Eukaryotic translation initiation factor 3 subunit D
Amino acid sequence: MASFTLPPIHDNPDGGWGPSSSNIPEQFKFKDIPYAPYSKSDKLGRFADWNDTTGDTRQTAVGLPSTRDARGPNRSRRDGAQAFGSGTASAFAYFHVEDESSFSLVDNKAAPPRRGGGFIRGRATNRGGMSFSNRGVAQRGGRGGFNNRGGAQRGGRKGWRDWEKTNRTRESSVAISPQWTMLEEIEFHRLAKLKLEVDEPEDIDTYGRVFAYDKSYDRITTKTERPLQLVDRIKYNTTTSDDPVIQQLVSKNVANVYTTDAILSVLMCAPRSVNPWDIVILREGNNLYFDKRDGGPFDTVTVNENASDPPQDPAPPNPNNPAEKTAVPEPPSINSATSLSLEATYINQNFGFQSVQENIAADFAHSNPFYGPEETEPLASCGYRYRVFDLGITEDEDVKICIRTEVDAYVPGPGNPQEGHGLVTIRALNEFDPRAQGAGGAPDWRSKLDSQRGAVVATEMKNNSCKLAKWTVQSVLAGAELMKIGYISRGNPKDNTRHVILSTASMRPTDFAAQLNVSLANGWGIVRTITDLCMKMPEGKYVLIKDPNKSVIRLYAVPMTAFTTEDEEGEGDEGDEHESAA
């Protein structure tokens, strides 16, 4: 019979459970090893990962959280929640720098489909461009020249390889100097909650001359399209502080705040904006002036700003890459964001100049205040109405805003245009290439405008929500009875020099505002909030900037010399940029 030997028993002299510290071998004491918290789902290490080709292999191999997916292997954890202990570097991970650095990715192509077929992706690179002339504060139609050599066309199925699209960051509309001081930051969701009801305005004075709208443009269809003409006319876009009429009204103390309808519409429709913009605010005494910069975003028209995949400009060369630094830059595509913006500005001006009858005119109380005696070129049809809105909440408050509004034509009929009867604003939507990047899924206008106009309008309301809202607000501020919107397309998608008018829509601004879900009360609430914010600041110059990549606006205090000619000349490259824009 086998013998049984009782194993040695290590008694704990301290009277507790388990062996005493004196009886534990040295190799089991884990001496001098730091403690690191961990979760059961954490990976302590691995020696190979044949599936990960994203560049996070080295990071996850040493126990650090992956920058690609913060959830780790525990897929039931809430998105973005950090795993317990994942933020601490593991002391037990195996580091082998030589091995890791020797690995290189050979092929990251997706596996071909098992069932026949495939996609052939190509691109025709026909380059082209255009130039737009803007002389000082006057914008001229018919002088905008196009140097075109074709266009860019992009094929392929919609949504094909969408994951390869890079989200390029937009640049700010103005360079933010380190000398500026940020005073306030307001998110768009806060602006959307504001509301202020404003009564009908008081008409102060009228200037300029308007021509009669040509009603034959209302009968144009896709089968009777009409070419867009180059009309040489001059139209001014002077900023608030340089307006001689506003300077006279300031001396009469007709209001506390002074601006133009183009500037104010951007502020009132700020929650819809995607592209960057900036408004220069000057406080002198108890008065505020909302100004624009020459050559800034107020002098051009955006295209498909609100589309899910808007037009893009080519990425600037990387200064750290010698090959890109020395390479000759290619001409911008005619379908880039900048080229489309210049094209849309050119179309808007010439359509407004062309669609009026110059032999039938109505004069306002005074002549055009910006047309000097040295000017010899003919003026465009334009009337200025200076109107004052009361923004006071109580009867004791004295907060009034004086706005220079513009109208483009009038419809002959009963009533005096000086009193607001039959006044019209004229704008134009443009189609460039339905198959190009940035088209926003727009249908072909030539085949859909007559039969399915609602689908075309719905797409434009989605892709150009901010632009249409600003046009509507400007029409309401000016007291226009009608809005005329032309549908203008390229004669050839690859040529941005020739355009045709396919149709013209007519609508009442208040009705169109309801269709666009534009709230004038919300816009006035935004204006009053910014006004109160600036009135609390000391006298000086400020700039309100829309963040180029976030839904937020920021108010900066800037030196009085900012955005002046002397300041621009002293800033080197920035000054050269402003001079070229002028």
Residues 52-101, 113-140, 142-166, 568-582 have pLDDT under 50 and may be disordered. Residues 491 and 499 are 5 Å apart (CA to CA).
